[in-house]
């Protein structure tokens, strides 16, 4: 049975498309990240989040990103290196009005530079939003 306080946490992991046994890497960790979101993701995938030194093929990369953290496009290029072909990157940024807020257009521009496309944005906690980025899809096959 899921306790009332746990239901919201599991919901966050599900919003992010986290499934049991997925390999999830976390980049950009700092003391301001939401530990409840991290715990929910670990609980859902069944293992600890991997750091930047991991050599696995990743199903999901979580990139905590704040204004002033550097060059987002460069970090996205680094993030997609170990990503599975059908993997996704979630850029987690402070919400509007919070310190470190990032304009959605900045995320979209950096994603495009890195060869990614934003598909959706979700609220992951009181202070953080997540933008889902996926790789460019191959052109659909045409029937002859």
Automatic annotation (TrEMBL):
InterPro entries, alphabetized: DUF3052
One Pfam family named in its UniProt record: DUF3052
Protein name per UniProt: DUF3052 domain-containing protein
Domain of life: Bacteria
Species for this entry: Streptoalloteichus tenebrarius (strain ATCC 17920 / DSM 40477 / JCM 4838 / CBS 697.72 / NBRC 16177 / NCIMB 11028 / NRRL B-12390 / A12253. 1 / ISP 5477)
């Amino acid at each position: 049975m899921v306790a009332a306080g746990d239901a919201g946490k599991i919901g966050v992991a599900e919003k992010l498309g986290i499934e049991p046994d997925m390999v999830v890497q976390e980049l950009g960790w700092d003391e301001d990240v939401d530990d409840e979101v991290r715990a929910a993701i670990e609980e859902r995938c069944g293992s600890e989040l991997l750091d930047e030194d991991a050599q696995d093929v990743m199903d999901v990369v979580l990139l905590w990103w704040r204004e002033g953290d550097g060059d987002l496009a460069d970090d996205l290029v680094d993030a997609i290196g170990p990503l599975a072909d059908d993997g996704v990157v979630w850029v987690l940024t402070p919400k509007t009005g919070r310190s470190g807020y990032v304009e959605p257009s900045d995320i979209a521009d950096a994603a495009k530079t890195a060869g990614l496309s934003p598909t959706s944005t979700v609220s992951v906690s009181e202070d953080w939003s997540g933008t889902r980025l996926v790789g460019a899809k191959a052109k659909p096959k045409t029937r002859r």
